[in-house]
Amino acid sequence: MSRVAARLAASLALIAPVVAAAQSTGIRSWCNPVDVDYRYNFEQINTGPSYRSGADPVLVTQGGQYYLFATIAAGYWRSPDLVHWTHVNPSRWPFEDVVAPAALSVRDTIYLLAARMEPAPVLFTTKPATGKLEFYNRMMPPLPYAAARGDRADIPDDSTPPGPWDPAFFHDPDTERWYLYWGSSNTYPLYGIELDKRKRFAYVGRQVQVLRLHPELHGWERFGQDHRDPRTPFVEGAWMTKHGGKYYLQYGAPGTEYNVYANGTYVGDAPLGPFRYAPYNPVAYKPGGFMVGAGHGNTFQDLHGNWWNTGTAWVAVNWNFERRIVLHPAGFDADGDMYADTRFGDFPHWAPTKRWKSSDELFTGWMLLSWRKPVTVSSALDSFPARNLTDENPRTFWVAKTNTPGETATIDLGRDYTVRALQVNFTDYKSNRFGTDSVYPARFRVLGSRDGKRWTMIADLSRETRDRPNAYVELPAPQRLRWVRYVQGSVAEPWLAISDIRVFGNGDGAAPATPASLTVKRDTDERNAFVTWSAVPGAVGYNVRWGIAPNKIRQTYQVWADAPTSLEVRALNVGQEYWFSVESFDENGVSKPSAPVKAGLPPRG
Questions:
Q1: In the predicted structure, residue 393 carries a pLDDT above the cut 90
Q2: CB 531: neighbour CB atoms within 10 A?
Q3: Strand blocks (E) in 161-319
């Protein structure tokens, strides 16, 4: 018997007889990134990088179910509750798969159009759960005044690049008129045009330019990590939402390959504008924490009438465009301001079961128990140590020396906690897989112990049939534990690689103190502000928060406690005053927020 197998046998011999099944039908929570079976990307099959990814999501409802469409998914997913997801293999699908799709549900029909550089078909379905798709239009007409594919010459203002790339449908329920928006470029704007539904989405008139980026005025539209790259940013990911008689034209910026990918909005009185920039932008912004990035998605209402905003998070282990799908509660306030709540955006949240009054109701209050806690593993490659498993960074990871059953990773939480959920995030390390039509489930068990000797099964995915690279498991009942042990069953990839094992629950102590001495200094460049605060003993991290009024503090930048208690926020709008606050959090809970501090405009002259 190998040493690894012996370890496994010893562990299983000590397991208590009561086994808690992880796949309990009573699961009520979920956690970003969305727990779907992300598909392997085939685009780099001839150059080498192999990775699972999901991006550019559109989530719609139809017939009491949720349907999720995304880039290179070999189909789509359905869910009854935003928790349990099933992949649907469609009867018709482009050979090259779908990128950045336009999907819209109107009455009993879902319409689908993939991003293309030339005319393409529109598909539709009235039975999305079955995967049966039909042609609504065998071929869209050419975009009016569009340049030919491959034309690299300058495109005049009265024309458009080839497309429509990154398309989005909009149906105005009050007028029964249809529109298409599209664009993805760091040179050209987003466009919009009316469609004639009676003629199977023929174009009406000519396109109009609906918006461009202005990074010189909008700090969050600047490119790069924390908006520090001088390169020209990208605008893409159009989506239209009508609310309160206003038209909210959503867009993604400044680029998918950094932590600051976000959704913003312009607001207008007509579907094709003119549009006004929303001073509270960005709408969905998550530059800190485990899953960073929230751009290029859509806004939709769930089965209970609550608003949500979907987006794309950045992983970038094997390729800059290696990504995941995220989902955040959203809404419109009494003034019509659009917002998405990304505070604790990658911690467990309750699934919606009714209309909520505040998105705060969805946060479970289960805190991260595993941050920087010591880990012991059965084996590790030298460059991929055990400590990476609890650093809350998906771009660092542990790799075992084998992918055989019995490899283990054991986290010592340091003391007994009430454990309620966990998330195992697998990494593609030399996976060498490129097929989007195959499923490669990882099978494992998770054990828990209070004394490090007697172990109880707390999660059993040993018979899992779905590939879950970001497997979230809510325990059927809370468990008092100090040690949490991952036990490998089988993995289809050549290497067992895990970026983070995240453990959630609560300690027994009081919530941490509110950070003191909050100061905010607006830079002479109004797009930036410098924030400092005093450290809180024992804190796991801090949420730096800001907004355009004391009662509209909605932006969040999460900072870990091993970082300096200072932050340069580079996402502000020129000419706009802001209010800042900060809160601390640890294993026990969250502090009260500090009193808002105004960050006015610097003197001019």
A1: yes
A2: 24
A3: 168-172, 177-182, 190-196, 202-211, 236-243, 246-253, 262-268, 275-277, 292-295, 299-301, 307-314
Sorted by where each begins, the domain ranges of the chain are 3-24+367-506, 39-346, 519-599
Cα(60)–Cα(365) distance, integer angstroms: 28
Q: Is-contact 324 266, C-beta < 8 A?
A: no
**Nearest one of 41, 36, 182 to 101, comparing CA atoms:** 182
Residue 25 pLDDT level (bands cut at 50, 70, 90): low
Task: Calculate what percentage of the chain has a pLDDT beyond 90.
Answer: 88
Token code pair at residue 306 = 């609550």
Binning pLDDT at 50, 70 and 90, where does residue 24 land?
A: very low
- Specify whether the CB–CB gap between 216 and 296 falls below 8 A: no
With a CB cutoff of 8 Å and minimum separation 6, the contacts of 347 are 31, 363, 364, 366, 367, 368, 504
- For the chain, the C-alpha Rg in angstroms (whole number) is 24
Q: CATH number of the domain at 3-24+367-506, out of 2.60.120.260, 2.40.340.10, 2.60.120.10, 1.20.1560.10?
A: 2.60.120.260
Helix (H) or strand (E) holding 585: strand 578-585
- At the fourth CATH level, the homologous superfamily of domain 519-599 is Immunoglobulins (2.60.40.10)
Contact 84, 22 (CB under 8 A): no
Q: Identify which of 180, 187, 243, 240 has the alpha carbon closest to the alpha carbon of residue 206.
A: 180
pTM over 0.70: yes
How many angstroms separate the Cα of 518 from the Cα of each of 19, 391, 524, 532? Answer: 48, 26, 20, 6
Rounded to 10 degrees, what is the CA torsion of 386, 389, 394, 397? 20
**CA dist., res. 267 & res. 248, Å (int):** 5
Q: Is 365 left (phi over 0), alpha (psi -120 to 50) or beta?
A: left
Report phi then psi at 127, rounded to 5: -135, 65
- Collapse the DSSP code of 233 into the 3-class scheme (helix H, G, I; strand E, B; otherwise coil) and give the result: coil
Q: pLDDT tens digit string along 568-585?
A: 999 999 999 999 999 999
Mean pLDDT estimate for the chain? 94
Query: What does the pLDDT look like over 533-570, one tens digit per residue?
Result: 999 999 999 999 999 999 999 999 999 999 999 999 99
The pLDDT value recorded for residue 23 is: 41
Q: Are 172 and 271 in contact (CB under 8 A)?
A: yes
10 Å Cβ neighbour count for 383?
Answer: 7
Chain centre to alpha carbon of residue 506: 24
CA angle 383, 386, 391 (to 5 degrees): 100
For residue 538, count other CB atoms closer than 10 A to its CB.
Answer: 13
Whether the bond between 33 and the residue before it is cis, its omega within 30 degrees of 0, is: yes
Classify domain 39-346 at the CATH class level: mainly beta
